[in-house]
Design brief:
InterPro entries: Ald_DH/histidinol_DH, Ald_DH_C, Ald_DH_CS_CYS, Ald_DH_CS_GLU, Ald_DH_N, Aldehyde_DH_dom, Aldehyde_DH_NAD(P)
Number of helices: 16
Distance between the termini: 92 Å
Structural class: alpha/beta
Pfam family, one: Aldedh
Family: Belongs to the aldehyde dehydrogenase family.
Bound molecules: NADPH dihydro-nicotinamide-adenine-dinucleotide phosphate
Oligomer: single chain
Strand content: 15-25%
Strand order of the largest sheet: 13-14-15-12-11-17-18
Radius of gyration: 27 Å
Protein name: Aldehyde dehydrogenase
Shape: globular
Keywords: Oxidoreductase
Number of strands: 21
Length: 512
Amino acid sequence: MAIPIESVPLLDTAAGVIHVRRPADGSPLEDVKIHDATQVTEIAARLRQAQVEWEGIGVRGRTEWLSRMRQWLLDNEDRLIEISREEGGRVRNEPLLETILMVEVIDYYTRVASKLMSPKRVRGASPLVLGKRFTVNRSPYPLVGVIGAWNFPLLLTFGDAIAALFAGSAVLLKPSEVTPLAVRELVRGWRDEIGAPPVLDILLGGGETGAALVDAADFIQFTGSVATGKRVAQRAAETVTPISLELGGKDPCLVLDGANLNRAVNCAVYGGFANNGQVCMGFERVYVEAGVYDEFVERVVAKVKSLRSGIDDHSDIGALTSAPQIDIVDAQVRDAVAKGAKVLTGGHRMNRPGTWYAPTVLVDVDHSMTIMREETFGPVLPIVRVADVDEAVCLANDSEFGLSATIFADTTKRAEQIAARLEVGAVNINDFLANMTCAELPQGGWKNSGIGSRASASGLLKFTRTKVISSSWLPAMDSEPNWFPYTPTRWRIFRGAARLVHGRGLGRLGIS
Ligand code: NDP
């Protein structure tokens, strides 16, 4: 018989295990042993040792291993998807997106990593550096810790590790306790099946294990909630460990008069309910201009009613992956209804074992409700009627979050003008997640949605430190005019030369 999913604590620290369950029916899946802080330190030390050789084989050597991993991902895609479907309660199309994007990221860095990591000659413009030669070298942080969320467990752990591995770091992954199994399988593939150097490992456990990783690593790549992100930042500050934070979102979708309504409706439903609404960039607020509001709402509701809940191959929407999430979603819907919102479809848990919430559309919502202010991360689409573009922009920006936004407008030019006014890290015009599918683009949020970004050149360079080497191509003199001893003559020469360079007009000659 299925155990009610809320009744079993996931993380059983007394027994030293995580009880991993199937969200689709609440049944136990596997008990996984937790790594304690001592083990974290030991694994970190082993990785640091292996990293030296990993860095030594250069980008070309590392690219060979990552390209074998790429093939392994393709060969084992079905198995990874199946594990993810079970532990995440997800429809198989969602984890497929993860493997596709990981392969894209490997391909991108295969093309550019060598150039990014190669030493760069820099010419100084100042006469003060005449005769000097400068080179900027890149050294990887030896050990990168990647802490990931449960909604895209592979992409948010190994997906972020790819750039670090290309850079020459060793990487220690800490997936969420909710979804550790697919990531564990991937690390097994790296180690046991392709036999790659031992520079990638996994930690199993909850927040304590994650905190121990923050202490052990030289750089932390974190994806998760704002609250945990702040805790990670505070802890990392103790050891002056650099961090990159990809945090929560409350992404707005603007639908304006004259937009292609067919596409807007289909996209709004996909953007609101893909991966059961558990997407950091999922649509959590829709602002619709008055002229198209009624038709838009009617068509969205019809489409949402047609979505099929389940995890078989004919389903659209899976279970909620993390059991506590269902209480958050339900509490937000109740708060909205209590304050005057109207439920047009859904609005309740589904009467079946596991964590199922009916796909929900709300109207008559406003920003006094938690559903419009806090992250929902579930299958709920609140829609607001706005008088005009200015109101839509004003409400879209009225948020602590700033991950991304979508605009549907009559012309691209108009949408681009509106995009410039939105306080977010990305704007997709007539689209959802388009920016995420392009590894060449920096992906990061504004405001409380994060610090730093993933993908693009900066997504690799952040895992490196710069080392500047300065030398001279002129024959070395025994001394320089500005070195000791300081004398009045040297002062006059040096100051006069500086005036000559930096002064303007007669000021160059010391005449004011
Ligand atoms: P959490 O913040 O609860 O957890 C994220 C990770 O941090 C988990 O692995 C968690 O482990 C770990 N953790 C918990 N406490 C600590 C700690 N003190 N020190 C170090 N690590 C810790 O987020 P969720 O897993 O609930 O994920 C959902 C959130 O992730 C949403 O807010 C979503 O918006 C965000 N997200 C952001 C994305 C982006 O790119 N901006 C992408 C996807 C999701 P454990 O789970 O075992 O407790």
